[in-house]
Amino acid sequence: MKIAVKEISEDRVPHVQALHEEIRLQSRLHHRNIVGLLGSVSEAGVVKIFMEQVPGGSLTALIKRVGALREDTTAHYSHQILQGLHYLHENRIVHRDIKSDNILVNAYSGLIKITDFGTSRRLRGFHNAVATFAGTFRYMSPEAANLGDEGYGYPTDVWSFGCTAVEMVSGQPPFSELATPQAALFEIGMYRRHPDIPNGCSEACRNFCLRCFTPEPGRRATCAQLLADRFLADAANQLIALHQQGGQDGPQASRRRILKLYSRDCELRQRLCDLLQQDRQRLIEYWSELLAADGSAFKADVTAELSKLLDRLSAYMLERRPEQLRGLQTNALALRRLGQAVAKILAGSRLPPHWILAFDALLEELRGKVGAASAATSAAQLPPMSQTAPLSTAQSTPPPLSVPPSPLPPPPLPPPTLPAPAVSRSDAADLAEWAATTAGLSPAELLTLADNDWDLDSLMHCDKEDLRRMPLRSGVVSRLWRAIEQRRASVFK
Predict the structure, then answer these.
(1) Is residue 210 domain-resident?
(2) What confidence score (pLDDT) does residue 406 get?
(3) Are residues 184 and 303 in the same domain?
(4) Domain termination site, one of 350, 376, 402
(5) Do both 36 and 66 map to the same domain?
(6) What is the pLDDT of residue 231?
(7) 398-408 confidence digits (pLDDT tens)
(8) Residues 175-202: pLDDT tens digits?
């Protein structure tokens, strides 16, 4: 098991006692669908939390990469989320912030784990409700939004889970059609409205989601009732039929095989290489289209160039020998576009969508390896230094100077060039202009937005919590959020 270490300065936490309460609460939870907390220490005003590391990413990142998920995949993930929620509720814990950002997906096995217990509360005695305002606006239940005298309890997690399920089948955050999270909160609190379920959903999927959105909390389905829903049972049978490999295996043996499917890194690499070869022609077509939209340096025979590049990368994925990458002529942008092309292939196949998170991790590794290999090749091509006899002490001592020479100023650095974000050309121009003039972002910060598939429109519909989860400094997040609020005020007034 790999361990992730989260460091939090006690000076930056307004309520240190609440932080330690969260640590104590999560350390008592042991379930396969809950991120495990292994321990914590406090040193020199810094709290270090040791947690189980999940190889992959959040459900939000997966949906951004592949779009709407198939119904059988949605049911497979929903079953695991509900198992984790049911365990929490049995232990009298309300999570209060269930959303796709707080759902982690194992890139190799598809195992789901619930994380972020910063807003969770344990219900005590006979009082099965809390009366404090917490959560993410777009995922809030009506009782949490209104915060009445009776408070709210376990049903609020079921509503938030329903919003997450709709996000999986639609590929869009709940209430994405509304301009601001505050507008979504108003619709939920005033009209008890739930997010729109896509028209293309099956009747079983639609009924499953609607059971999560019963306005009265006392009549809303519980996690145990949802786990017995026909939608989850039918999808589980489809998965068993899809992955069954003949023989007289019973359903339990098939389920065990599903859970172990592609769990090893080497097996996943082989499967991904098989995918690259099976859909080679379509993959190269998608890849070349993305590079052409960027105005890439690939010229004449782009198909042959990309085909050779794909062979080299596939060979490295299987054997992982550094010499396979020496002399490789590519860049980070080409590898990023390759990831987008693979995501498009996966979106139209019956393969597990969480594979794209594993492929992204492989591409990240390749970016570093390609850079190191290119540097090694350049160093090897440098002419050797001439071997000369060492100077004597008299020769090596320079004559004293009465006036020390003033050092020449270093030549000015060339202005940085803005990288092309992972959006269309018009969106890229709008984002680059707005980021430079209004938000004051640097080219590196703009590249971070592009790497996470943000464009100007999606920024106008995001929450501040979404920005905080990006690898940006806190000052940059504050400046970016102020610019977003200014633009919202000017556009939606």
Answers:
(1) yes
(2) 47
(3) no
(4) 376
(5) no
(6) 93
(7) 444 444 454 55
(8) 999 989 999 999 999 999 999 999 999 9
Tracing tokens 């570093």 back to the chain, one arrives at 368
For residue 298, being part of any structural domain is answered with yes
Which structural domain, as residue segments, surrounds residue 346?
265-376
The CA distance from 298 to 161, in Å, is: 45
Is 87 found in the same domain as 48? Answer: no
Supply the pLDDT for residue 331. 62
**Residues 219 and 292 occupy one common structural domain:** no
Check residue 172 and give its pLDDT.
94
The pTM (predicted TM-score) of the whole model is 0.66
Specify the pLDDT at position 121.
60
pLDDT of 289: 84
Same domain, 26 and 122: no
CATH of the domain at 32: 3.30.200.20
397 located within any domain: no
Burial class (CB in 10 A: 0-12, 13-18, 19+), 49: buried
Which residue, chain included where needed, has tokens 């590079």? Answer: 291
Residues 193 and 64 reside in one and the same domain: yes
Residue 296 has what pLDDT?
57
Show the low-confidence residues of the chain (pLDDT under 50): 123-129, 131, 244-263, 299-300, 378-404, 406, 412-426, 493
pLDDT the model gives residue 15: 62
| 320 in a structural domain | yes
Judge if 14 and 98 occupy the same domain. Answer: no
Domains of the chain: total: 4
Q: What is the CATH number of the domain that holds 467?
A: 1.10.150
Do 345 and 459 reside in the same domain of the chain?
Answer: no
